[in-house]
Design a protein that fits this description.
Blueprint (H helix, E strand, L loop, with lengths): L11 H28 L18 E5 L9 E2 L7 H9 L4 E5 L7 H4 L10 E5 L11 H8 L3 E5 L6 H7 L1 E7 L5 E3 L7 H5 L4 E2 L8 E6 L3 E6 L2 E8 L5 E5 L5 H5 L1 H15 L1 E5 L6 E9 L17 H14 L4 E5 L3 E3 L4 E3 L5 E3 L5 E3 H13 L3 E5 L35 E2 L4 E2 L2 H19 L5 E2 L14 H7 L4 E4 L3 E5 L4 E3 L6 E3 L19 E6 H6 L3 H7 L6 E2 L2 H9 L1 E5 L4 E6 L13 E7 L1 H8 L4 E5 L2 E6 L1 H5 L2 E6 L5 E8 L2
Parallel strand pairs: 1-3, 1-4, 2-26, 4-5, 5-12, 14-15, 14-28, 14-29, 15-20, 23-24, 27-28
Antiparallel strand pairs: 6-9, 7-8, 7-10, 10-11, 11-12, 13-32, 16-17, 18-19, 21-22, 24-25, 25-26, 30-31, 31-36, 32-35, 33-34, 33-36
Helix pairs in contact: 9-10, 9-14
Amino acid sequence: MPIPVSLRGAPGSLRRKVVVACRLLWQVSFPVMMMMVCATASLGVAPATAWSVKPYRVLLVVEHWDDPASVVIEHQKDYFQPVAALLKAWSVPFEILRRDQQHLDVSCLFERSGQVRYGVILWAADNPSYRGQDLAVLDQAVKDGTSLIVADSRFLDPVLEKLLGAKFKGVYTSTDPLRVRQPHFITRQLAAAGMGSVETAWDFTDRSWVETTGAQLLIDQADHPVVTVNQLGPEISATWLGVQQLGSLRDSAYWRGLLFRSLIWSLGYLIQPNLDYSHSVEIEIDDWGAADKAFLSYWRYPEPNETRLRRELIVPLQKHHAVVSANVVSGYVDRKSRRIISPWTQNFIDQFGVRQDYTSARRGLLEAVRAGVIEIQSHGWTHMQPDLESPPGPWWTADLKGEASAGGWYVEFEDRRRGKEIPAIVQLSHLQHSLDCLWQDFEQHPLEFRPGGGAWSKSPVNFTPRVAASLGFGLFHAEPTSYYYLDHTLVLDLAGLGQEITASFDRPLNAGQWPSHPDGPVMLVFHDRDIALQAGFVDRLLSSLPAGYTTVSANQYVALLHADIDCAGGNAWQMAFDYGSRYCAYFDKHRSYWRLWLSDPVRKQLEALQHIDVYMDGTMTDRWGPSELARGTMVLEVPPGARRHVCRLEAAK
C-alpha cells in the first residue's frame, strides 16, 4: 500500500504508525468493498447505484429466407417461422440475420458506442450457411456480454464449439426416455410438470450426437446430451437445445418450455403479456353490410336491425363482459344501378319478401361501438369479385338461379370464378376504399383485415397480407389456418399458435374439444346470419365457452403484438413500453398488464437489496419485498395512454 504523500519526510516512527493503521483499515474495508461489488454486479445495484441490464433484443440467425426482400415469413417456406412466431407472441424484440444474404460482422453485433447490440443470439443456422466465414466477431460479442442459444444446428464451426463447450460427432437413433440429469433453472419447470423423464417410444428419427467438452449436461437420452449449458461468465451462457426440428419449439410443451426458460436464463429477464392465451378466444362476426343476403337463395336472411342488435348482441355481450369484432363490408353491390353504393342507405323489401333495413343495422352497430362491446374491422370493400363485367359475366345481368349464384363471384381478393389471382393494385384500391368508408360510416380505423370467404392471393407479387400491411393493418386473418402479424417491415405467419373455429346456429360448437395453445387465442368466427336466424344465439354461444375462457378483442391482440418494449440500466432498471404507434390505439383507454420473469441470478441480486420500489411514469406504484421476489415473477401494470410509458425499479430507500 503506498504511503500518503503528505507524510513523506515525517519522522520514521510516525510514518510506521500511520502505515500500520492504514494497513489495518485496508484489511477490514477491502473485503466489505468486494462483497458490495459482487452483490451488485450484473443487473444489480453497483456502489454508485448503477444497474447493468442486458439489451432486450434477440438476434435470430437463420440459414435462408424464402422472401428475397426479407419481409414475408411463411410456415410452408421458412423453417424458422415457429421461432419467429413465438418471439412475437412473447413480445420479445428480435431481428433476423439471414446468412444467405448477410455477413456476420462487427456492425451487426455492436452498437457504435461499442456496447453489444443483443442480449442473446438465437442461432438456428447450420453448417453450409457459415462455412468459410470467420465467426471471431461472435466470440467477441459473447465475451462482451451477449449470450448464445443454438437450436437445430450441428454447430460445426470451431468458434461455436468453443462457446458451447460441446462438439458434434454425428447422428444417432434412440427411443430411450429424455431425462433431466441435474437441477437447473432451464429445466426446473419440467419436474414441476411431471416431465423429468419423457418417453420417446416409436420415435426413430435421427438425432444429433454431441459430446460435451466443458458444458454442463442438463438433459440426456441414453448418455447422449440433449440439452447443455456452458456458463461463460456470471451473466453469459451458451445453451444448446438438441431439438430435431424448430417446429417442436412451438408445438411441444416440453421443448417450448425449454426455449422460454433458456431465453430468461440468457437475458436475465423476460417480459411477456400477462394473458392466458390458452383460455382466450377472439370472436369475429362476418358479413355486416354485404349485399348477397338480399338475393342469394342459399344465403338469405334479414340484416339484423337496431332493435335486434340491442337485444341479441349488445345485452349478451355486456352480460358476459365480452368484446367482439364486427367485420364490415362497406360497399353494397347494387344490381339495379350496377354500382357500388353505401349499404347504410338501403331499406327495402327484397325479392324474398324480407325487410332489409341496413340503415337500422348501422345504428345498432354504432350503439354497440359506443357501448364498448364491438370493434369495427374490415371484411373488404364489397365481398365480391372486383371484375363483374368480364366473361363468364357480366354478373350484373346474369341469372341469379344460374351463373350469378356461383360462389366464385362472392369473394374479393382471389378470382375463384376465373381461376386466377387479383392484381395487387386492385386489392390495394379495394382495401383503401374499405378504410375510407369505415371511417366515414363509423369513425373507426380498423386494424384487422379478414377477406371474405377466406379467399386471398398468395403469389409474392400479389400477396394479400403484404398489401394489407402496406395500408397499416396489424393483423390478417383468413380461415381455416391463415393469420399473419403485419407491420410495415414484417409480414409474419403466426400459424401454429391459434386454432380457428367456425360457429353457426345450426351446428354444435363442441367448445370442450378445442385445441389450445399458450401463445395464441382461439379464433372464433360466426356471421350476422346467426343473430338474424336464431334468438339467443350469442348468449348461448358465450355461455357454452369452457370454464375460465375470456375474450380478447382484435384491437387488444394487435396492440399486444405490436407493443415496443425496451430496457436500460443506469441509476435504475428502466422498462419502456412504447404504445405510440397506430397499432396500439387500444391502450389509449385501457390498462395493460405484463409479466416480468427473472432468472435465478438476477432474482438473488434483487433479493439482496431486500425491497424494490416500482415506479410507473414517475409515480411509485408498488414495493416488492422478499416474498414477492422469491417467486421470480411479478406483474407490471401500465396505465392507459397511447404513448411511451416507463417503469422504473429502484432499491428501496
